[in-house]
Write a structure and sequence with these properties.
304 residues; eight-stranded antiparallel sheet; three-stranded antiparallel sheet; globular
């Protein structure tokens, strides 16, 4: 800190090399060097050490946050006869396994989606060729109540308590009747409610995948196994609800004016398109999924 001999006129900011010269009410004020170049060798070394230390601490914290989920995923992979990938230095762990004879994956994500910090854990099962349509089950909430004002679908399954707590969407609507048919309705409801203590659980079925997801980074094997059990059970319900042998559903293509692949309602205003494959989505549905709903696309960015 030092006093400049020639200060600038009042309320004028002047840059002198690495110094800021400010004069208020005709009186000079003290200024501080603000660049690394103005530091002595010892000061610069200390500054760099502090910066490097902060980076190292950040990396250690990040690795420790991933340790528990990675350990749980690794243990579950061994338990279920799957394979484990740790994701490397900056990636996320992943488990590949088989459920009901179908390829499946346990995936993690933690990062920024649509300018918001987000994380999720999900089980994805490939069901191409056996899906009877699309089905979406999620907990009732303010956002869903708001969407229903504008005509978003919410089908009843025949259980008053479940219908009051969950939103169910399907295309065709008859799929709900087949999945929640009386002889297995209580089992389907129990499967869906198994995840109620985790954050924002959702069950999503389309023509290619079954996804069971929670909006948190699951760090223990017990909760991870609950996700797998739910996916495995819903796979059974889906296979039972599939059309007779010889009928195979092709891939759904949504065009402007068609139906949203996520919620099954008409595509009108407030649409976004996947940057990769250009599939249209409702903006709310894209935010809900956190990605493109087209099979194998993996797009995470949108374009108008």
């Amino acid at each position: 800190m030092r006093v400049l001999p020639h200060a600038a006129p009042p309320r004028v900011l002047v840059l002198h090399g690495s110094l800021f010269d400010v004069r208020l009410s005709g009186k000079p004020v003290r200024c501080m060097t603000t660049t690394l170049a103005a530091m002595s060798g010892a000061e610069a070394a200390v500054f760099l050490l502090v910066a490097v230390g902060a980076i190292v601490v950040g990396l250690i914290v990040s690795f420790r946050r991933k340790d528990a989920p990675a350990a749980a995923a690794r243990s579950l992979a061994v338990r279920l006869g799957g394979s484990f990938e740790d994701g490397g230095l900056f990636g996320e762990p992943q488990v590949s396994l088989t459920l009901g004879g179908r390829p499946a994956w346990i995936e993690y994500y933690r990062g920024v989606l649509n300018n918001f910090q987000s994380s999720w854990t999900r089980v994805v099962v490939g069901i191409r060729g056996v899906s009877p349509g699309s089905l979406h089950i999620l907990q009732e909430g303010f956002g869903q109540a708001f969407l229903k004002i504008f005509g978003a679908q919410d089908l009843n399954v025949g259980d008053e308590d479940f219908d009051s707590r969950y939103v169910v969407r399907a295309t065709p609507e008859s799929l709900v009747t087949r999945v929640f048919r009386p002889e297995q309705r209580h089992r389907v409801i129990a499967s869906a409610q198994r995840l109620r203590n985790l954050r924002n659980p959702t069950i999503d079925l389309d023509t290619n995948t079954l996804i069971v997801q929670v909006r948190e980074y699951v760090g223990n094997e017990r909760d991870l196994m609950e996700l797998v059990k739910t996916a495995e059970e819903f796979l059974t319900y889906v296979l039972v609800a599939s059309p007779p042998t010889g009928i195979e559903f092709g891939e759904v293509q949504a065009a402007g004016g068609g139906l949203c692949l996520v919620c099954g309602t008409a595509l009108r205003e407030a649409l976004v398109r996947c940057e990769n494959c250009k599939t249209p989505h409702h903006a709310e549905c894209w935010n809900y999924m956190g990605r493109c709903s087209t099979y194998a696309c993996k797009g995470r960015r949108t374009t108008a």
